[in-house]
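Hi Y.,

Following your request, here is the sequence exactly as I used it, all 195 residues.
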Amino acid sequence: MGKVLRAVLRTIVIAIIFVVIFLFGASLYLSPQNKLKKSDAVVVISGGDTDARITEGVRIYKENLAGKIIFSGAAAEGYISNARAMKNIAVTQGVDADNIYIEEDSKTTEENAANVAKIIKEKKVESIILVTSPYHQRRAYNAFKKSLGEDFKIINHSATDKEWRKADWWSNEQARFLTVGEILKNLYSIFERKI
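Below is the corresponding structure, written out as tokens. Let me know if you'd prefer a different format.
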């Protein structure tokens, strides 16, 4: 009986350790962050809590950490693209319209990266601060690295998202959905690169 009890306790301890590692490890993996440094542009991609992403991009710009803002995203609905709507909001918040570039065709993260890369090359941008929601940061970073090259300087900096918190994403149904979805999308992306 003693061996069986020890085996059961060992299994329970291992399961608890695995759950704790998954709960905290998933959020750390999905949301890489770098120290903010002056860059040529801040890139803000639409989706998730877009208002928070705009606010963070504008804050970075106003703190003179980037001289330009690039907004990316097609129209979710209607005729005005997300990128143009984001630009309009940024202008009302005091950003000079001449310092904003928009990319209006992207419907996926990979398209955001590929289409913004064209602007970056055309405008001779050498470094960016990439702003998205924290659960989306890893996948966005990987897509931008693929489009811009491994040597291109990308600083990861997430906006705060009203639906997702790194410390307790598992306590909210929407955050659980977002987290599991992003983990699966990241795994698919990794698998696709290796084929």
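The chain has a mean pLDDT of 88.

Thanks again,
Q.
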